[in-house]
Specification:
This protein is α+β, with helices and mostly antiparallel strands. It is built from 3 helices and 6 strands, in the order E-E-H-H-H-E-E-E-E. A hairpin with a 6-residue loop joins strand 3 and strand 4. The two termini are 20 Å apart.
Length: 114
């Protein structure tokens, strides 16, 4: 299967069928760009809209920023990253094992790797 040049939120709808949390974090803009229903639950959000409106940038540590930029460099080379993350969705400590890979998101006019 050939990859698309970029993906829109509409392209993500099929992932709502999965029983595992899938989400796309926009590294450049430091925000969640999309999440399936299971990820909305994992992030303790009341809805996808509420989750996407959350401010992830204001309390992101310098170490996390560096880690994410390193991910971005790897994604641009087609690499994947497997690591554990400890997050605090709505103040609840949650540790996950993540497999991360890049995807180009956006519109015909503006798109980038996330």
């Amino acid at each position: 299967m050939r990859r698309k040049e970029y993906y829109t939120r509409d392209d993500m709808a099929v992932f709502d069928l999965l029983e595992h949390p899938i989400y796309i974090f926009d590294i450049l803009n430091k925000c969640l760009w999309w999440a399936n229903a299971e990820a909305v639950k994992m992030w303790n959000a009341t809805s996808l809209t509420e989750l996407l409106e959350r401010d992830f940038a204001s309390d992101m540590s310098e170490a996390s920023k560096r880690r994410m930029l390193d991910y971005l460099r790897k994604f641009k080379k087609g690499e994947r990253v497997r690591e554990s993350w400890t997050m605090y969705p709505n103040g609840v400590r949650t540790t996950t094992k993540e497999t991360c890979s890049g995807i180009t998101i956006g519109t015909p006019e503006e798109h980038h790797v996330a």
